[in-house]
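Table S2 (text version). Query chain:
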Amino acid sequence: MKKTVVTRHKVGDFDTWLKGHQDRLDLFGPAMSDLKTFQDTDDPNSVVLVMEVTDMVKFEAILNDPSTNVLKTKHTVLDPITVSMQVEP
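Corresponding structure-token output:
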């Protein structure tokens, strides 16, 4: 079952982070069907990703895999990464 997931985090350099879009598609591709990218209007180094996650187990494994830290460093991703999931009222 597909779930809408929102992640929010800061980056050290927005332009560097934005150039890593294809890396994000490649990394999360096995666990998602869609990815939308947003930048906060009041903080250019605060970003939001809205994903349609098709496999939560894979998604969580990717987020928690220590090898993901290489791409986080390359793209200036700063912790913490906040993950929010859609809920049905």
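Notes on Table S2: Residues 66 and 72 are 10 Å apart (CA to CA). The mean pLDDT is 96.
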